[in-house]
Amino acid sequence: MVGESREAVMGDFVARAEVTIAAPRGAVWQVLTSNGAHPEILFGTEVRSDWRLGSPITWTGEWQGRSFADHGRVIELEDRDEPWRIVLTHFLV
Q1: With 70 as the cut, is the pLDDT of residue 8 above it?
Q2: Pairing status of strand 36-37 against strand 14-20
Q3: Which helix (H) or strand (E) is 32 found in, with range?
Q4: pTM: predicted TM-score of the whole model, two decimal places
Q5: Strand order in the sheet with 46-48
Q6: For the range 35-44, what are the long-range contacts, defined as Cβ-Cβ under 8 Å and sequence gap of 24 or more?
Q7: Which distant-in-sequence residues (6+ apart) come within 8 Å of 73 by Cβ?
Q8: Model confidence pLDDT, tens digit, residues 23-42
Q9: Which residues does 46 contact at the CB level (< 8 Å), separation at least 6?
Q10: Who contacts 89 (Cβ-Cβ below 8 Å, separation ≥6)?
Q11: In contact, 21 and 32? CB cutoff 8 Å
Q12: Beta partners for 58?
C-alpha cells in the first residue's frame, strides 16, 4: 500500500476509503471486478455482480462464526482504454 485516505461521517453514516496499491492496475481491477472469493478483499467473502453501471453486488461469507450477506450497487464505473475507477455502495443486511 503506497498511500491511504479515509473518511467517515456518523448519522447517515457515509464512509469513504481510498487506497493506493503497488500492483499493476489490470491485476487490481481483475480482483475487484471478478466474482468469487478473494482473500485479498473483504475477508475473502464470495462476491457476485455482473459489474455493469447500476448493477447490484452481493457479498456473502462468515465473520466471527456468523454468516452474513451484504449488498450494494455499482454507482460509478470508468473503464477507458484501461481500468480506471469503480465506486460501489455497501450496505449491511
Answers
A1: no
A2: unpaired
A3: helix 25-32
A4: 0.71
A5: 36-37, 46-48, 56-63, 66-79, 83-88
A6: 37/61
A7: 54, 55, 56, 57, 88, 89
A8: 998 888 888 888 999 887 77
A9: 36, 37, 59, 60, 61
A10: 72, 73, 75
A11: no
A12: 48, 71
